[in-house]
Design goal:
Structural class: alpha/beta
Shape: elongated
Mean pLDDT: 91
Number of helices: 9
CATH topology: Rossmann fold
Low-confidence stretches: none
Order of helices and strands: HEHEHEHEHEHEHHH
Largest sheet: 6 strands, parallel
Number of domains: 1
CATH superfamily: Glycogen Phosphorylase B
Number of strands: 6
Strand content: 5-15%
CATH architecture: 3-Layer(aba) Sandwich
Distance between the termini: 27 Å
């Protein structure tokens, strides 16, 4: 289980509650390297899931200005071709698009920060040591707020303020939060779980 502040289930069982038990794919874990603080926040990856039901892709495509940063916007596989075409019709010198990548690993590693809704890509970025910025939306707002409370992501707030808050991030704080998340989601969950299961086996023998 995670470490968010909702009550854990109780009963005739033991609960192991820690992000240390969160399983991340082996393809992500094998790309995990020593944590290195970011020297800048210039190359920004925007990814809001396969369908982006929040329509944040459209919002950022329109609001991004010539602010000295370079933005890569991921267009998910569940978006219609018509929707992708409309988003791509926005032409800006510092905005590029990636259509339905097989995974986000290389993109995450090659950018200074990820802006997301707080889903699976956030966990991948934390594992890889890339700063995560969450935008609050619907039921996922709780996830973003909870991660921020644990100092694991930078909460950009609601979409109306997200772009401005992104530009005003403090690099030192971003790196501190990123390192904390990197240490919490360490990629060795399977080994930790196996150790617990071995302990149960030893108790029964």
């Amino acid at each position: 289980m995670d470490e968010f502040d909702y009550p854990a289930a109780s009963g005739n069982f033991e609960v192991f509650r820690s992000f240390g038990y969160y399983i991340v794919g082996s393809d992500v874990v094998k790309r995990r390297a020593k944590f290195t603080p970011k020297a800048r926040l210039k190359n920004i990856l925007l990814s809001f899931g396969g369908a982006d039901p929040a329509t944040f892709s459209e919002y950022f495509a329109n609001v991004i200005a010539n602010d000295g940063c370079l933005y890569t916007l991921v267009l998910g596989p569940a978006m219609s071709d018509e929707r992708k075409a409309r988003i791509k019709s926005v032409k800006k010198p510092n905005l590029s698009f990636i259509d339905s990548p097989a995974n986000l690993i290389d993109l995450i590693l090659n950018h200074d920060a990820l802006v997301t809704l707080g889903g699976m890509s956030a966990y991948e970025a934390m594992t890889l040591g890339t700063p995560v910025c969450g935008v609050e939306w619907s039921y996922l707002a709780y996830v973003v707020r909870s991660f921020a409370k644990l100092k694991m992501i930078n909460n950009l707030g609601d979409i109306k303020n997200a772009y401005e808050n992104l530009l005003n991030l403090n690099l030192a704080s971003v790196n501190e939060i990123c390192e904390n998340a990197y240490l919490k989601i360490s990629g060795d969950a399977l080994a930790k779980i196996a150790k617990i299961l071995d302990g149960f086996e030893n108790e029964r023998s």
